[in-house]
Specification:
Elements (H helix, E strand, L loop, with lengths): L12 H21 L11 E6 L7 H16 L3 H8 L3 H17 L4 E5 L9 H21 L5 E5 L8 H17 L7 E5 L5 H18 L8 E5 L13 H8 L4 E6 L1 H7 L12 H14 L5 E3 L11 H20 L5 E3 L5 H14 L1 H12 L10 H17 L4 H8 L3 H8 L12
Helix pairs in contact: 3-4, 4-12, 5-6, 7-8, 11-12, 12-14, 13-14, 14-16
Length: about 425
């Protein structure tokens, strides 16, 4: 090789060193506050079941009821596609995958509810329910019947129910520890959070439990439920939800939008309380921006229109739920609430259609980027990150198969993950 040509510069090397030193605190702050997505599976939904209704067969029961609804109201692929407006190319693959999902894994994330869905009960009754819930959850993980994610929604930390919420949380976690330890899929939800100080209090509770049981610090995370206007905008005009994420000290795993409590807080009439109301869009947009890059995921709310009754009524409810779910997915809300077994067919139909109809284009774009072959779209590293994330989410929920993704992209899961989660400032092509 020839001698390397000297390139002329004007700024002394000491200037760069000085700037790096001055920005070192900022570098550390970026790493602490914006670690990026954790790279773990995000469930497509959260199902809420009141604590007194939760049983060992709840997951299987929901799947069976959803399958019966399909058999009764849309017995084949063409009928289901006609209700939802699916094209001919999607009708059969979506229908087949929905049925398979309901048979194999009907619920991805189950939250056993001790709050609104359970209400106020005598202390002895809630104590027993919390202990029973811990026992059933532990047994489900032990025998392989658990959902990928399971946990409880405790009562909030407002004064009237604070002690009760803390006690239920303690009984539940203590019961899990007694049964063998905390499962990897454990999820806790803190509802009706209004002030960042309530998040700080939750952190303190979990710290004390971890110390008492000899757990690794930070082992237990939790979701923050956004159900009040004050949780979005503080009296000084700042975004309260951003403060909450920081107050969680790395323990926050998600922000869950509460459609009906939040709408009522703003005075929205009951007939117009929905996840596509402008007030809902505003709240979720702020949640989304506040959470971006922090590793905290945003979850959409639910619909209270249940697919029950005569077939025509069920079809109307299905179309509504399908449309709301597709709308949320397009806005990058990849998770939502489901309140009834009849919502499961349309949840999975919407999710599977979303990933399958865009699959080939996304795969082709990522393959062109990875192979440096170009194409009809000039993609950047950030877009490659989004494309690979899209494919990984499709794989995780069952919308896509690993063989077909590898065939069209030339990448296995490890390869996809290398594009989906680059380090900050390292948005470049992986080594060939």
């Amino acid at each position: 090789m020839g001698q390397q040509e000297t390139v002329a510069t004007s700024i002394a090397g000491t200037v760069s060193e000085s700037i790096s030193a001055s920005l070192a605190p900022v570098d550390a702050e970026l790493e602490r506050r914006y670690p990026g997505d954790p790279g773990t599976r995000q469930p497509v939904h959260t199902v809420y079941v009141p604590a007194d209704a939760f049983a060992a067969d709840t997951l299987r029961s929901w799947g069976d009821r959803a399958l019966r609804a399909l058999d009764e109201h849309a017995p084949d692929a063409d009928a289901f596609a006609a209700v939802l407006g699916l094209g001919d190319d999607l009708a059969e693959p979506v229908h087949v995958r929905v049925r398979a999902k309901l048979e194999r894994e009907p619920i991805e994330d189950l939250r056993i509810d001790f709050e609104d869905g359970y209400g106020r009960r005598p202390d002895a009754e809630e104590d027993e329910a919390a202990a029973r819930t811990a026992r059933l959850v532990a047994e489900a993980y032990e025998n392989g019947t658990a959902a990928p994610y399971m946990g409880i929604r405790m009562k909030c930390l407002e004064a009237p129910v604070r002690d009760r919420g803390i006690r239920t949380l303690d009984i539940f976690l203590t019961g899990l520890m007694a049964a063998g330890g905390l499962p990897d899929g454990l999820v806790l939800t803190l509802p009706k959070v209004t002030y960042a100080e309530q998040v700080t209090a939750m952190v303190r509770l979990l710290e004390e439990f971890e110390k008492a049981r000899g757990l690794e610090p930070g082992r237990i995370g939790f979701e923050i439920q956004i159900e009040t206007s004050q949780s979005i905008l503080a009296t000084d005009g700042t975004a309260t939800v951003a403060r909450m994420i920081q107050a969680a000290e790395g323990r926050a795993t998600g922000l869950h939008y509460g459609t009906f409590d939040y709408s009522a807080c703003l005075g929205v009439s009951a007939a117009y309380q929905a996840s596509d109301h402008p007030a809902a869009d505003h709240a979720k947009a702020i949640m989304q921006v506040a959470a971006a890059g922090t590793g905290v995921r945003v979850c959409d709310g639910s619909t209270n229109v249940l697919p029950v009754g005569p077939t025509a009524q069920v079809h109307d409810a299905w179309r509504l739920h399908y449309g709301l779910t597709r709308r949320a997915l397009a806005r990058a809300y990849y998770q939502g609430w489901d309140m009834h077994p009849g919502h499961l067919p349309t949840r999975y139909a919407a999710v599977f259609a979303f990933y399958r109809e865009g699959f080939e284009q996304a795969a082709a774009r990522l393959a062109a980027y990875a192979n440096r072959t170009g194409g009809d779209v000039m993609d950047e590293p950030a877009t490659a990150k989004a494309l690979s994330g899209y494919l990984l989410r499709g794989l995780d929920c069952g919308a896509l198969d690993s063989d077909e993704v590898t065939r069209l992209t030339g990448l296995d899961r490890v390869g996809l993950e290398s594009f989906a989660a680059p380090r900050r400032g390292d948005l470049t092509l992986p080594a060939q």
